[in-house]
């Protein structure tokens, strides 16, 4: 790891902690953590910084998933099969991103997010737990959605955690609290898939990774307690704020940067 001042290390830790907190409640912590890494370490290979972000997110998300699963029982059969699809799709996406340009997806992303936001606002998705499909159909739909989002996570990635939560609430009919642990497990799987590709290609820094992981873990534990205490309505409001910010950011990155 390049030499960093105590101030820079402290700032990175604080931002990673905040990213873990935000990610544990509504997803999207990478929007905070990735720019922080790129700003603090401009001399690092981008792939190394992305892999460090994935590693930190995995550790923090595991801690959050454990906390959420203690509060609400999760459908582990559904989670395991869909997480497998997310993992392998993410591997494919991460490999493909090294072979083809991503500008077309960057341009389409803010409009896709806007459509999903409008679609979600017009319903009470996430407030009421009312699973929509029978057992076998639920597994098929969950695996398909996990594969699509997992591929996106490996290929590009911004807001993947929010996409997983949106998928569980809007498509499968879960409420926000009961969707939290399954969505976290899918996010862990797709992050791990992309991370395996980065590891294989030699892009990683253990010291930096452990710093970010520890901060993510602490922030995730704090955020999970806040989400459990305040419930679905609080998470829903935060989710809409996050997606709105993500729309603005992805539009800026695609057309104005």
UniProtKB/TrEMBL annotation:
GO cellular component terms listed in the entry, alphabetical order: plasma membrane
Pfam families tied to this protein: TauE
Protein's membrane topology: Multi-pass membrane protein
Entry annotated with the keyword ATP-binding: no
Ranges that cross the membrane: 76-97, 104-121, 141-164, 185-203, 239-256
InterPro entries (alphabetical): TM_pro_TauE-like (IPR002781), TSUP (IPR052017)
Keywords recorded for this protein, A-Z: Cell membrane, Membrane, Transmembrane, Transmembrane helix, Transport
Subcellular localization, as worded in the UniProt entry: Cell membrane
The keyword Transcription appears for this protein: no
Superkingdom classification of source: Bacteria
Cross-referenced PANTHER family: MEMBRANE TRANSPORTER PROTEIN YFCA-RELATED, TRANSMEMBRANE PROTEIN YFCA
Family listed: Belongs to the 4-toluene sulfonate uptake permease (TSUP) (TC 2.A.102) family.
Protein name: Probable membrane transporter protein
Organism: Polynucleobacter duraquae
């Amino acid at each position: 790891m390049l030499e960093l001042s105590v101030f820079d290390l402290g700032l990175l830790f604080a931002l990673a902690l905040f990213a873990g907190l935000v990610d544990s409640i509504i997803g999207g912590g990478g929007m905070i953590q990735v720019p922080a890494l790129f700003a603090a370490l401009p001399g690092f290979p981008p792939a190394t910084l992305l892999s460090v972000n994935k590693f930190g997110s995995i550790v923090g998300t595991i801690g959050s998933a454990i906390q959420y699963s203690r509060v609400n029982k999760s459908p582990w059969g559904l989670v395991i099969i869909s997480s497998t699809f997310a993992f392998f799709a993410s591997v494919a996406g991460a490999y493909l991103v090294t072979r083809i340009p991503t500008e077309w997806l960057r341009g389409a992303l803010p409009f896709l997010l806007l459509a999903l936001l409008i679609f979600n606002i017009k319903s009470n998705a996430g407030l009421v737990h009312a699973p929509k499909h029978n057992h076998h159909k639920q597994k098929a739909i969950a695996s398909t959605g996990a594969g699509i989002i997992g591929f996106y996570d490996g290929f590009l990635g911004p807001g993947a955690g929010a996409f997983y939560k949106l998928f569980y609430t809007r498509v499968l009919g879960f409420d926000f609290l009961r969707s939290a642990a399954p969505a976290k497990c899918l996010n862990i799987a797709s992050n791990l898939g992309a991370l395996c590709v980065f590891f294989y290609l030699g892009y990683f820094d253990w010291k930096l990774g452990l710093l970010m992981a520890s901060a993510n873990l602490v922030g995730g534990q704090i955020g999970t307690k806040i989400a459990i205490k305040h419930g679905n309505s609080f998470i829903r409001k935060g989710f809409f704020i996050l997606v709105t910010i993500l729309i603005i950011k992805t539009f800026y990155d695609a057309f104005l940067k």
